[in-house]
Amino acid sequence: QVQLQESGGGSVQAGGSLRLSCAASGRSFSTVTMGWFRQAPGKEREFVAGISWNTYYTDSVKGQFTISRDNAKNTIYLQMNSLKLEDTAVYYCAAQQGLQANYNPRFFRSWGQGTQVTVSS
User: Fold this and answer.
1) 58 Cβ contact partners less than 8 Å away, ≥ 6 residues apart
2) Burial of 101 from C-beta contacts in 10 A (0-12 / 13-18 / 19+)
3) What letter would DSSP give residue 65?
């Protein structure tokens, strides 16, 4: 079991950057697959980025966002650059046991409460 807490959201001008953090508690963090998801107003929750033994991104954020992890701090990050209006959403951190690198949301058993990212023109 992993408990997750997101932080780092806020308001930013289009073209700017934010770094989201997700602090995790629980054993064996280094063997947990982690992911970032987002849900925009009126839209379904969607996968953004994941990290296991590899990293994987949805096509819309490749080259724009970077996911990373610091196992010593039990924390993952999402560096968000060149933010666009359509990046506005609540961003959720999620975790699943193992390093299988399957980023289907069905496999994530632990979820944070989310952090709001608002991009303005």
Assistant:
1) 46, 47, 48, 49
2) middle
3) E
- CA-CA distances (angstroms) from residue 7 to 53, 68, 91, 106? 24, 15, 10, 23
The residue-averaged pLDDT of 87-98 equals 95
Structural Rg of the chain based on CA atoms: 13
Let me know if 48 is exposed, middle or buried by CB neighbors in 10 A (0-12, 13-18, 19+): buried
pLDDT in tens, 10-53: 999 999 999 999 999 876 778 889 999 999 999 999 999 999 98
Report residue 33: phi and psi, to 5°: -80, 130
